[in-house]
Design a protein that fits this description.
With about 120 residues, this protein is mainly alpha-helical. It has a single domain, classed as Potassium Channel Kv1.1, Chain A (2-Layer Sandwich). Helices cover about 45% and strands about 10% of the residues. It is built from 6 helices and 3 strands; from the N terminus they run ββααβαααα. Strands 2-1-3 form a 3-stranded mixed sheet, with no helix packed on it. The longest helix has 13 residues. It starts with 11 loop residues before the first strand and ends in a 6-residue tail after the last helix. About 20% of the residues are buried.
Amino acid sequence: MNWHEKNPSSDCCLIVEGKRFYVGKHVSLPFHSNYFTTPLFSYMSTESFKSGVEFQDFTMMLNVLHGLEALGKSNIFPVLGYAHLYDMKYLLAECEQFLINSRKDARLDCLLVVADNYGLDKLK
């Protein structure tokens, strides 16, 4: 899916690092995170994000959320960071399960720090 082209299901636009993401406000973001409810259902159809939100990482998060990209070693931490930032319980659970399944390949002390930082109790 190309988030940067308007399509029939997109009725709102998010701007990250000056680049547009066309999304459907009734599709998934507000369902997965209350953070998006106010900006997407307000009178404004465009919402800009504060600095610190990175275009490429936000794209990865949307792709994983919509099943267009699988969680992996290359995207787990950006996706986990945004899942935590936006309190996306589904994505947090998916990230936690991925880390549990990858436990044998990771250092225990690193996993404990990640578990503490992101509130991933099953990972401890």
